[in-house]
Amino acid sequence: MQAVPGRTLFEKVWAEHEIMLLPGGVSLLRIDRHLIHDLEAGPGLARIERQNYRVRRPDLTFATPDHAVSSDPLRGRDSNSRGGELLREMRRRTAVAGVRLFDLGDANQGIVHVIGPELGLTLPGSMIVCGDSHTCTHGGLGALAFGIGSSEVAHVLATQTLRQTRPKTMRIQVNGALAPNVTSKDLMLFLIGRLGTAAGRGHAVEFAGSTLRNMDIEARLAWCNMSIELGAKIGMIAPDDLTYTYLRDRPFAPKGALFDRALNYWRQLPSDPDAAFDREEKFDAGDVAPQITWGVSPQDVIGINELVPDPGLVADSRTRESMRAALNYMGLEPGRPIEGTDIDWVFIGSCANGRLSDLRAAAAVARGRKVAPNVRAWIVPGSEAVRRAAIGEGLDRVFIEAGFEWRAPGCSLCLGANGEILPPKARSVSTSNRNFIGRQGPEARTHLASPAMAAAAAIQGKICDVRKFENLS
């Protein structure tokens, strides 16, 4: 009798949600949670209304304003005109459809990929979609989550299903202990730099190894957040006891006997020992220093102790010209240390690094110090829950006394969809996930880094090595 081959975490969850296999090898999938934000909610709901559909499962759809709302602490519904218009449309249409809305002022409002895990909407083995590419964040809890386009948003609203082609599988194992002041953000940037932004294309990536097992849940979420920067729509980490402890008593997580039943299912999800992957990669975490990007792609990254790369040393002509263009845009000279580069702005927030642990790490650097006079620095909590918890710990006072601006929850300077942008040629150290041309404003120059590295840059007024700071506790 032929043995049944082992299955990966991804394969188990995909099979559980596959309703049927359609012609052409396309799977019709059942969706457990549909998260919608202000850029997608109104347009998506309007689209199905025009087609004479209703929301199929309003109880499984959750909305929150994050992308287009202002992060001004005194914000109103019209604090920026486009955001106000989208917000009013979101409020009106979700009320008609019966969709749960975590509105401004609600204790549960925030960036959609921050509040999902906080509220227990994100569960191991669930299939989650959202009209945002960083939906892969939820894979940090063992969910199969990915971003979808506008037409797919409408399809899920109307049917609670989605047609998808099954991707290949890839496992990236990282083992060893991280050095002090090196974070999951640094580690992910390091991997993207080594593998490239196309490495995960066409694959669902499972992250494994002792390094991941020793990370807390918020670090895992930050890690999976940047799976899309690796080219993968889907990034997952198998759930474990830390996951189950994190989820217990979350508002939307199962309760009592239902939690115990769910736990029995979740424990069966990790990849089987004999599961086969289409591609495997292995890395040693001990090789990683704090990272900083130098160009206009997340793969343009080096350790803080390294030199800006020299295109002249690259053999491939297309890569060489691309590097030259990136350095020209960023105003950097090849062969020079990146440490010591003057900056203008610091942004600490986003769905990558806007959680409480991120603010704690930044506050450890800021405590008792002052932001450099040439720098404007923003702290934007990822959710209202994070904001309130930070205030409860006195972190807001630490930041304000140091000269940081304490803002309201939202995506803010991550992408500038709310009118919050940098001046042309302003140089920013940002904890967001993308450093594309114009991402933070026309001609703005963005360096991606961890919260501690960003806070250190704010204090020094330059890109600097956070490991040189003392008393970070």
Short account of what is shown:
This protein is of the alpha/beta class. It has helices spanning 9-17, 41-50, 81-97, 112-119, 150-159, 184-195, 210-213, 217-225, 241-247, 257-266, 317-330, 350-353, 356-366, 384-392, 395-402, 451-460, and strands at 18-22, 26-30, 33-37, 61-64, 100-101, 127-130, 144-147, 161-165, 168-175, 203-208, 234-236, 279-284, 291-293, 301-303, 345-348, 376-379, 405-406, 427-430, 445-448. The protein has two domains: 1-288, Aconitase, domain 3 (2-Layer Sandwich); 291-468, 2-Layer Sandwich (Aconitase, domain 3), CATH 3.30.499.10.
Tell me the layout of helices and strands:
Layout: H1 9-17, E1 18-22, E2 26-30, E3 33-37, H2 41-50, E4 61-64, H3 81-97, E5 100-101, H4 112-119, E6 127-130, E7 144-147, H5 150-159, E8 161-165, E9 168-175, H6 184-195, E10 203-208, H7 210-213, H8 217-225, E11 234-236, H9 241-247, H10 257-266, E12 279-284, E13 291-293, E14 301-303, H11 317-330, E15 345-348, H12 350-353, H13 356-366, E16 376-379, H14 384-392, H15 395-402, E17 405-406, E18 427-430, E19 445-448, H16 451-460
Parallel strand pairs: 3-4, 3-6, 4-5, 6-7, 9-10, 9-12, 10-11, 15-16, 15-18, 16-17, 18-19
Antiparallel strand pairs: 1-2, 2-8, 13-14
Helix pairs in contact: 2-3, 2-5, 6-8, 13-15, 13-16
